[in-house]
Design a protein that fits this description.
The chain is α/β, with parallel strands linked by helices. The chain has one domain: 3-Layer(aba) Sandwich (Rossmann fold), CATH 3.40.50.150. Helices cover 26% and strands 30% of the residues. It contains five helices and seven strands; from the N terminus they run ααββαββαβαββ. Strands 3-2-1-4-5-7-6 form a seven-stranded mixed beta sheet. The longest helix has 17 residues. Bound molecules: S-adenosylmethionine. The site of S-adenosylmethionine has 18 residues, from α2.
């Protein structure tokens, strides 16, 4: 299979937070996650595909540590600028490169917002996330419900036109997760090439069993 052309997230990083729609999505997803997963002062959190930290940086004073992992140096640079600006002392970044995978962990919670559709092999990623979680740890992943390729005006770097929740549930079970629950985390209207459409984002929360 030919590689999907990559989107230039380094360039996008410079103006990422200036988009109100993105701010709303991240805020909605954050609200949905914290309604289902209690943040605790010792919790070790990994934000996979963290971007500029819109989802998780605001949690820093409620958790033990935060690792923002991303393939874009530009995104991580914006993340680190906020860390310095707000004197956050428990957040670090990890650059995922061709030769470097996920940070080793262990983590108590792995979150992700709008990154899965950029990952070609999501089942393989779910196995990797399972491996870096501590026993009893949880994941909380948010992305698009099936969108027919209409959500993005340019689908460069998009490997999946959203995900069917049943498919995601199946992949999570195959990766060893239990207690799988999903909900609708956010909804928005967008102008598309075929007119205005409503898009929804799912959040799925699942657990790595303590005994495995
Ligand atoms: C749509 S953005 C979402 C950023 C952030 N989570 C947010 O909600 O604002 C997708 C992010 O995934 C990152 N990304 C793309 N491919 C990735 C990969 N294979 N592994 C980790 N991060 C990746 C991009 O650099 C970008 O920061």
């Amino acid at each position: 299979m030919a590689d999907t052309p990559k989107r230039d997230f380094n360039r996008a990083a410079l103006t990422w937070d200036a988009n109100p729609g993105r701010m709303k999505m991240a805020a909605d997803i954050g609200t949905a996650i914290t309604a289902r997963v209690e943040l605790t002062p010792t919790m070790r959190v990994l934000d996979f595909g963290c971007g500029t930290g819109l989802l998780s940086l605001g949690w820093a004073d409620r958790i033990g540590s935060l690792t923002g992992a991303d393939t874009s140096t530009g995104m991580l640079s914006e993340f680190n600028a906020k860390v310095r600006q707000h004197d956050i002392d428990n957040a670090t970044t990890h650059l995922i490169g061709d030769a470097t995978g996920l940070p080793a962990g262990p983590y108590d919670l792995v979150v992700s917002s709008m990154t899965l559709h950029h990952i070609a092999d999501v089942p393989a990623l779910l196995h990797q996330l399972h491996a870096v979680l501590a026993p009893g740890g949880r994941i909380a992943l948010a992305d698009l419900d099936p969108d027919e390729g209409l959500f993005h005006s340019d689908n460069t770097g998009v490997c999946h036109f959203g995900f069917a929740r049943e498919q995601m549930r199946q992949w999570l079970m195959e990766a060893g997760f239990t207690s799988i629950e999903d909900c609708t985390a956010s909804q928005m209207n967008r102008k598309t090439s075929v007119g205005e459409r409503v898009f929804t984002l799912f959040l799925v929360v699942a657990e790595k069993p303590a005994s495995k």
